[in-house]
Amino acid sequence: MRANYRMQRLFVGDALAAGEAIEASKEHFHYLANVLRMAGGESVLLFNGRNGEWHADLSFPTRKRLLLTPVEQTRPQPAPSDLHYLFAPLKAGRLDYLVQKAVEMGAGVLQPVMTRHVQGKIASLERLEANAVEAAEQCGILSIPHVAAPRKLEDLLSDWPRERRIIFCDEGHGSQNPLPVLQAIRERKLALLVGPEGGFSDEERTLLRNLDFVTPIPLGPRILRADTAAVAAMAVIQATVGDWT
User: Fold this and answer.
1) Same domain, 99 and 121
2) 114 phi and psi, to 5 degrees?
3) pLDDT, tens digit, for every residue of 134-146?
4) What is the pTM of this model?
5) Is 134 within 8 Å of 102 (Cβ atoms)?
6) Collapsing DSSP states into helix, strand and coil, what is residue 147?
7) Cα–Cα distance measured from residue 111 to residue 20, given in angstroms and rounded to the nearest whole number
């Protein structure tokens, strides 16, 4: 069932059940009452990543309180996406964009990876989570990706579960077409690894290429920025071995 994009959608942490009113947070109160100027009796869509999506009615018991009462479920909770996205942090503004687009493209886990030439840093996991929630609200996504703490590339690879294949964007790949490589993959559990703006170091590329659970792919003849490469790689993965198929 497709999302209803005509109604306002909000992520809440509370459990959702018919008739069980929840109190709006200060942020939601301000947004709904002051920014959108919604009134009692109007409706929004609520989701929490666990109980599906619900049609909920607004009511104001006092001028400074807003209750959101779920009326009926509009969409059941789907299984979470299983694609893991491993990325070298970028500078703040572009990192926000990268996280939002990764969520839109179906990432189920967001794993920052610290590489040799990384230029950005993760100042706040809460900011990553907020960007993931915003993307989910805007795009009708019901499962919020898990945001993991940053790890060094070598540490991440040392205890990586071998049944999940890592696809890494290799700017030094000998070809330009990723499709034959992706179409040969038989594993269903996948992770995508995109490096920093400066690319992987020679040592990191050698390490990755020597691991039997890692598959390098090219991304065409053009040089792509890291955030563009992430969107391009996710699109081609979803179209060949992901949930678009």
Assistant:
1) yes
2) -90, 115
3) 999 999 999 999 9
4) 0.90
5) no
6) strand
7) 35
Tens of pLDDT along 172-183? 666 789 999 999
Say if CB 66 and CB 58 are below 8 A apart. yes
Q: Are residues 139 and 94 in the same domain?
A: yes
Task: Return the amino acid letter for 112.
Answer: P
**Per-residue CA distances from 119 to 89, 195, 226 (Å):** 7, 10, 11
Judge whether 129 and 95 are in contact, CB under 8 Å.
Answer: no
Nearest by Cα to 7 from 77, 68, 50, 97: 68
Round to whole Å and give the CA distance between 33 and 66.
8
pLDDT in tens, 62-91: 999 999 999 999 999 999 899 999 999 888
Instruction: Tell me how crowded residue 175 is: count the other CB atoms within 10 A of its CB.
Output: 10
Tracing tokens 């563009």 back to the chain, one arrives at: 228
pLDDT of residue 18: 98
96 shares its domain with 124: yes
Domain count, the chain: 2
- Which pair of tokens denotes residue 29? 């109160």
Q: Are 223 and 183 spatial neighbours (Cβ–Cβ below 8 Å)? A: no
Choose among 160, 70, 164: nearest CA to 108.
164
> What are 21's two structure tokens?
């009113």
Range of the domain at 97: 83-240
- Which residue, chain included where needed, has tokens 């040089």? 223
